[in-house]
Design a protein that fits this description.
Layout lengths: L1 H21 L4 E4 L1 H9 L6 E4 L16 E2 L2 E2 L1 H6 L4 E5 L5 H9 L3 E5 L5 H15 L2 H25 L7 E7 L5 E4 L4 H8 L3 E2 L6 E3 L2 H7 L3 E5 L5 H11 L1 H4 L2 H5 L2 E4 L12 H12 L13
Parallel strand pairs: 1-2, 1-5, 5-6, 7-9, 7-11, 11-12
Antiparallel strand pairs: 3-4, 7-8, 8-10
Length: 294
């Protein structure tokens, strides 16, 4: 009987090892949020390369780069001998993906959509690919709790103060400023944090100085600065004097966020970013029964 038990245990162990071996072991990730979730799920040791938007945690910066998520370099990726490339449907260009597929690299396309169902799907897929299904479920549960707590805080804050008018500006490599519009993670974050997003167009697009002045935002959020904090906000207003004439500019309500937060859908750092935005949107409110979880 003892021998049968030992044999059964050995069989289960061998089966588990076979499953682990079948999972992809060498990963390349393209998209900041995806890379962060791989790390959060305990898979950082499997990452052999990342794209240029994968900047957090800082340890990822020491990994070989494979280009920008929409302009990946096939040779750089193939040199790393990956089993899998994980990214969003925005990843490309298509000829590069076809070349990688032909070389035997598995391509896993996840959703970059800014909503909870998309995140649930992404975490479930990553959990299965890493053999971390239970961890993925736990992370998702904690994430939902934080979002709900934050939403409750905003609901109470809005009973004391109206939603501020918010303009999100994005700068690509020092290029022209683009305004975040509908169907963007930026707009989702503004609304979730209790603001009113002023971008009425879809996606991101440049807007004239006159249009930005006419919008007259109460709060400006800037993503894309090489500088950080107050220095970045000051530089933005100095380089774009028209913004200094808006209510946000006159009141000094310019917030700076990490642009990599906006790549790959809802990432692990989004709840912290929402916390910061919400408290900046409603600096004078006092909420008694709910606090934003850290």
């Amino acid at each position: 009987m003892r021998m049968k038990t030992l044999l059964a245990c050995a069989s289960v162990l061998v089966s588990q090892m076979a499953v682990a071996d079948a999972l992809p072991q060498r990963w390349v990730s393209a998209g900041g949020a995806f890379s962060e979730w791989v790390v959060a799920l305990g898979g950082e040791s499997k990452l052999v390369g990342v794209d240029s938007t994968s900047q957090y945690p800082p340890s990822l910066r020491s990994l070989p780069g494979v280009g920008y998520q929409r302009a990946l370099a096939a040779e750089d990726i193939l040199t790393l001998k990956p089993d899998i490339l994980v990214g969003s449907v925005e990843m490309g260009p298509p000829p590069v993906l076809e070349q990688l597929k032909a070389a035997g690299v598995r391509i896993e396309l996840l959703s970059a959509k800014a909503d909870v169902p998309a995140l649930q799907h992404n975490l479930s897929e990553l959990g299965q690919l890493l053999g971390k299904e239970a961890e993925a479920q736990a992370l998702m549960g904690g994430y939902l709790t934080r979002l709900q707590t934050q939403a409750d805080w905003v609901r109470q804050a809005q009973q004391q103060s109206p939603a501020p008018r918010v303009l999100m500006l994005l700068s690509h490599s020092g290029g022209n400023l683009q305004v975040a519009g509908k169907d963007t993670l930026a707009a989702w974050m503004i609304e979730q944090a209790g603001g009113k997003s002023l971008g009425e167009h879809n996606g991101y697009k440049p807007v004239s100085n006159e249009a930005m002045l006419a919008l007259d935002p109460q709060v400006i959020i800037f993503a894309g600065a090489r500088l950080e904090g107050d220095a970045a906000g000051k530089a933005l207003l100095e380089q774009n004097p028209i913004l200094a004439q808006t209510r946000a500019g006159r009141d000094g309500r310019v917030l700076v966020i990490d642009p990599t937060l906006l790549v790959g859908g809802l990432g692990p750092r989004v709840p912290d970013a929402l916390n910061r935005l919400a408290t900046a949107f409603y600096p004078d409110v006092k909420v008694q029964t709910a606090e934003i979880s850290q």
